[in-house]
Amino acid sequence: MPRLSREGFKHNAKVFEKTCQWCGTPFFASRSTAKFCSSTCRAYSHQADTLDTAAPWQETDRTVDALLHQIAFLKSQVESLSRDNHELRRALEEAKKAE
Questions:
Q1: With 80 as the cut, is the pLDDT of residue 82 above it?
Q2: Residue 71 has what pLDDT?
């Protein structure tokens, strides 16, 4: 599964924002040489290169898949921001009670 947010990495780790060469999904990688978001995309690319065949899905399917990856990324961002917002509200309420 591609890492669609930076949360899975250590706070001081070098993280590279990349775009998958197969499906076009933006993802985060721990290596600067990463080309694909997942082993599935890497395998599809290898199949297309070695068999000299067309992509295993139609172009519209690749677009839909890329959009689904983007939706998953955005959902994780919304959840993270919602959690941060909740924590900030709780801290603000505690600060008001302390006054």
A1: yes
A2: 86
